[in-house]
Specification:
The chain is 38% helix and 12% strand. By secondary structure, the protein is an alpha+beta fold. It has two domains: 2-105, 3-Layer(aba) Sandwich (Aspartate Aminotransferase, domain 2), CATH 3.40.640.10; 107-226, Aspartate Aminotransferase, domain 1 (Alpha-Beta Complex), CATH 3.90.1150.
Amino acid sequence: MKKVVKIAKSNKLKVLEDAAQCFGSRTSNGKFLGTVGDLGAFSFYPSKTLGGIGDGGMIATNNKKYFETITQLKNHGLKNSEHKIVGINSRLDSLNAFVLNEKLKIFHKISKTRNDFYKYYVDNLSDCDFIKLPKKENSNILLNYFTISINKNLRDKLMDYLKINGITTSIYYKTPVHQLPALSFMNKSFKLDKTVNASKTVLSLPLYPFAKKSEMERVVKKILNFS
């Protein structure tokens, strides 16, 4: 992010951070992700590190002008009972906001138990030679997914094996963005070999707060048995 911010400043550009999956994570010097740039966008979808009970999100900024504009945009462009600009209905409903406020009170426990699950995987799967585990850039990172890399010839087999044993895994994302039909108009002359390879080898294992030790043990045991 330091490099991105530096490039942006030198070219008089603004930085909007996609922090959808980063709530609670910090940089190596302790700065919260989503507050490094000019604006930061967070998601409160139920599966995120701070998840609500439906769709929702938040934009963070310390710029008063941006704040006032965003406040209008989220509420049909209203200001002082008049539509000053064209906006949308993007208000967070009260029940969802209530749940998120309550979860904020125990977010330290949510973070700890997610990190405990991460640590259990690392401690027990590091010697598993057919998978590559994710590595945190620093200890302040709170992972939203525990995404492993596995040989593309084994990925779907492991996924099916775990599914048969009642363990749900996911692939984020099976089709690279530049290969999606919706973006077929883009120039396809460029090659993104690493992106394509990642899409064929990644697999996200269960990772959630307040997991029981028996649940963590079961996932690890099945993966080791697969080998």
